[in-house]
């Protein structure tokens, strides 16, 4: 069996599959727990990060379909199985960063579903590495 595995391994100089791109959006365990709680209460959810004034710096959580997305929004990925969208102009600023949805004490956005829980979603971010940015080039957002 070791011989078989050795033959399947890439040889030096041989092309290998490019690395998988990193996730554009992640969630902390605390955020995943709150997402699960809200999903249990409201059914399927969605997130939107607008970058606008007031609550625009925090992701808003809605029952899926209660916030209409369109050509001016991009789907970054999913957190806790729920889609996470960002406005296209905001994405133009944040496209070089990986976003992590987290939870802190406080009131959520005016229309965000977590508001009554005494917790609020917020994003933390880090810049992608050069290798990660290169991997992302072949996986544009929709």
Automatic annotation (TrEMBL):
<protein>
    <submittedName>
        <fullName>Uncharacterized protein (DUF779 family)</fullName>
    </submittedName>
</protein>
<feature type="region of interest" description="Disordered">
    <location>
        <begin position="1"/>
        <end position="22"/>
    </location>
</feature>
<dbReference type="Pfam" id="PF05610">
    <property type="entry name" value="DUF779"/>
</dbReference>
<dbReference type="InterPro" id="IPR008497">
    <property type="entry name" value="DUF779"/>
</dbReference>
